[in-house]
Write a structure and sequence with these properties.
It is a single chain. This protein has 170 residues and is an alpha/beta fold. The protein has one domain (2-158). It has 7 helices and 5 strands, in the order E-H-E-H-E-H-H-E-H-E-H-H. It has helices at 8-16, 30-38, 53-63, 69-85, 104-117, 132-137, 148-152; strands spanning 2-5, 21-24, 44-47, 94-97, 122-125. The strands form 2 sheets. Strands 1-4-5 form a 3-stranded parallel β-sheet, with helices on both faces. A two-stranded parallel ribbon has the order 2-3. Helix 3 runs antiparallel to helix 4. It is globular. 29% of the residues are buried.
Length: 170
């Protein structure tokens, strides 16, 4: 599980104190994070190292006119190659903390782009939503992530405030 959003260090610390959970803040490369996560035997493994982090940042920058299409396409290609080669894996879940505090384009990334690709894999959560143990016990099951090349390749046309809307009815 990748944890992201406001209060991530505190939440990781709280998760790490729970039975059958190992949570840590990871620094370093995708490969180092992947190796750490694969060695864990706990029921839940949570960290803050997002294998889609570079793609997410490039997508946000592109739609905020701070980045280029070429940069976004490069990050997509690098990430797809790493996913297909098994150097990194997508997490079972993204736990997005306090999504209401996120900047608009970031909110569209987490709750639009990622949630459209795999709706049950993105969990918005805030302390008001309920307890951490309850949230872990109620993680939904659902379809796996789609093939990365298919959905990540469409990111340049995934406009932030239109992601997830049925364009056929427009």
């Amino acid at each position: 599980m990748v944890v992201t959003g406001a209060g991530t260090p505190g939440l990781l610390s709280a998760l790490d104190r729970m039975p059958n959970v190992r949570a840590v803040s990871l620094e370093g490369s995708d490969e180092q994070a992947q190796a750490w996560a694969s060695r864990r035997s706990e029921t839940y493994v949570a960290h803050d190292h997002d294998p889609l982090g570079h793609v997410a940042a490039a997508w946000v920058e592109f739609f905020e006119d701070e980045g280029t299409l070429g940069t976004l396409q490069l990050e997509i290609e690098r990430t797809v190659d790493a996913l297909e080669a098994g150097r990194v894996n997508l997490p079972d879940y993204y736990l997005v903390l306090q999504p209401e505090t996120l900047a608009d384009t970031w909110r569209h990334w987490w709750l639009g782009v990622l949630a459209e690709a795999a709706p049950t894999r993105v969990i918005p959560w805030s302390p008001e939503s309920g307890s951490l143990p309850r949230m872990l016990r109620r993680l939904p099951t659902g379809r796996p992530w789609p093939a990365p090349r298919r959905w990540l390749g469409g990111l340049p046309t995934a406009v932030p405030d239109r992601v997830g809307l049925d364009h056929r009815s427009a």
